[in-house]
Amino acid sequence: MNLIWHHAMVVVVMAVTDGSSSGNGRWCSVKGGKIGNKRKKRWGMIRGGDDRIDKDNLGKLGVACGVGELGEALETAEEKRREEKRRDDHPLPMAEMTVKYGIIGVGMMGREHLINLHHLRNEGVAVVCIADPHLPSQQVALDLSQSFNWPLKVFPGHQELLESGLCDVVVVSTPNMTHYQILMDIINYPKPHHVLVEKPLCTTVMDCKKVVEAAKKRPEMLVQVGLEYRYMPPVAKLIEIVRDGALGHIKMVAIREHRFPFLVKVNNWNRFNCNSGGTLVEKCCHFFDLMRLFAGANPVCVMASGGVDVNHKDEIYDGKVPDIIDNAYVIVEFENGSRGMLDLCMFAEGSKNEQEISVVGDIGKGEAFVPESIVRLGTRLEGRDDVQTLKAEDDRIKYEGLHHGSSYLEHLNFLSAIRAKGIKAPAVDLHDGLVSVAMGVAAQLSIERGRFVTIKEVMNESKFNNLVS
After folding, report:
1. Are residues 169 and 292 in the same domain?
2. Rg of the chain over all Cα atoms, to the nearest angstrom
3. At 314, is the secondary structure helix, strand, or coil?
4. pLDDT tens digits, residue range 123-145?
5. Which stretch of DSSP H or E encloses residue 33?
6. Which residues constitute the signal peptide according to the record (predicted)?
7. Would you say residue 85 lies in a domain?
8. Which of 19, 111, 165, 277 is the most buried (most CB within 10 A)?
9. Is residue 260 located within the same domain as residue 392?
10. Please, are residues 101 and 168 in contact by the beta-carbon 8 Å criterion?
């Protein structure tokens, strides 16, 4: 492959795709970041690297290399459509004051948020401060921000960041077990801050409920939960198909995640249920959230079987062996009679897709595949021969990152809600975060107790039962 090498601080890429599902040779990297679909290259986002452009595809790419050099935009009908879509997503004038962000926790996900917000800089956002007690994480984030020419104020903890008064919005991307206290401190702080908190909302249902109750007293604050899988283009397309009624009344939802084991974290805090909430909370809250969306109803009871069979069994921390499960089957029954099923395996690196979703109604069936980014749609009437295969893309995505562009769209949506100044609610609110955790906790308890566990049982206090009704 012929490569042209650029040592530029910024590379802006505008791609006109040819509709092909193949990603071979069609990629470009930016300093500290990667745009494209080669998974083996994705970790370059935190390590820097030279800027590369595939010469074979220069005819398909409008590329500008260098600080402030944007090149000529192609005046096409497609670009006009994109601009109209952007205006719809941002009803208020873009000349408003810059929205200033602070990021609490700048490990892998914190840096992912930093990069996504950098790609939203033309939307009027800036990250102005970070907080993290872990010095190596601080330094990597600082190096990254310097490549963006974003000077950051650094604090050792979230209280110091809040007291600085520097930011309007706070992103919480700290270890799961810290979410509760940090959220309560933000919500109770005199100056209001809008909040995007990484999933899970908290590690226990009780902590989630306390956060929900506290936030009710601060209606001027928007809080969105980072269940960004809703925004993955094939998943979003399937949600649209379901909501349009193309499948009829939904009866069954099946979600398979076959993937690699949990990644290394600072001190590997994610190896224990007490820190993460357990695999079915930490990882699978995404899928329980999607089940609820597809089913169009709230969960009633959960039955699960799972175990620790392969991963982390040879690891020891302070004399303790990790207890997070690495595989499970989970069945969920919903109020409207529909059923959901999760098939989780975290030692399945040999899978073509990490996520496969099937939604079946009384009229038809829809499927979504990630990272293939395709959707299949068929009806009972037309049968197998007329199943459609659709390529799912979203032209708004400027950075794919670790989650196929969903984090970028998540930030775009939340920014729109912030600018709407109370007119528009966050797409994923605290209620959604609470229910997704409750479903995960119920599944974990079902494994431990060997029986169905009801959601009411998990909620366990009558005054909070209305939160899942």
Report:
1. no
2. 22
3. coil
4. 999 999 999 999 999 999 999 99
5. strand 33-35
6. 1-21
7. no
8. 277
9. yes
10. yes
